[in-house]
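re the bet — no i am not wrong, look at it urself. input seq straight from the record:
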Amino acid sequence: MDHYVTRKRTAPVFCTIVPPHILGKLAESDDPERHGPARSTLEHDARHRTRRTDLAGRSVAPQEARDGADRPNRTIYDAGHQQNLPGSKVHAESDGPSQDASVNRAQSGLGATFEFYLKAYGRKSIDGAGLPLNASVHYGVKYDNAFWDGERMVFGDGDGTLFKDFTIPVDVIGHELTHGVTQYTAGLDYQGQSGALNESVSDVFGSLIKQYALGQTADQADWLIGADLLAPGVHGKGLRSMKAPGTAYDDPHLGKDPQPATMAGYVETTDDNGGVHLNSGIPNHAFYIAASTLGGKAWERAGQVWYDVLTGGHLAKNAQFTDFAALTVQAAQARYGAGAEHDAMVKAWSEVGVTGKK
């Protein structure tokens, strides 16, 4: 029998992979094929975000691992194009391949994320104790998003014009499940710089999960989030670029990628919880610089430092960029000594302009 204690209490937040600024741009279109799905997705996300805030639920990580914690326990549901979760159970861990490609991709993406955290960092599922991984596919009608709701992954099919099925990119699945890891560890507040760090941590590990699955080194990776999500004809490479924030897309319908790469472009705004999907480009770029400077497999040294900071117990819920940066420098020295890893962290944060209080 598992025993549960209050190791870390965190409030789950409602986090979507497609940010409000993209959907907002689409919602302004005169074309119903563009604005219809975007407006309904925005309305849904606003309701769900408010509900999640009102619930202010608490997640408690178990003290002891569940039986079989080192093996994934995945269940996939079909929402049937409704918005009632979880939907009908259609696939269990022991089942063979489904005739539904979305079910198979969701199963595979959950497994890739589980394997990454276990093999790279010894973490047993997202709570560290073998939490079963659940997902619902075919959510809503032309729903242009995917999200982690604090309990499960939820995937829309996309509108088919701008966005494809959200089960396709493994980094999107990894991104959203990493919100669960953050939920059970640092519990970063989803507001301002701490919220941007919350988003960035998910981008970092989402990218690393893809790189791990593909066996890529830092110089081989594309450093894009959602590279396989945009439909043919869209002028863009993905939702975000960690290598070059602000260059992921420039499309007449989506608009131009507004992410800053350095503090010189930091966006002061009250939208999107204080620009969490915008300013996340800054710590994203810092990680890219650190990983590229060190070379090799990015999850092994740069990723290990980020993981140590996220799970080490010293990262405050309201941490600012400077706090996170200082902790990465300390973590690098603690694990590797005063060498290349430490120097790479100093270089990375200096190059993005995180050197003093904002």
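see?? DSSP finds ten helices and twelve strands in the chain. told u. also Residues 1-10, 50-58 have pLDDT under 50 and may be disordered. so pay up
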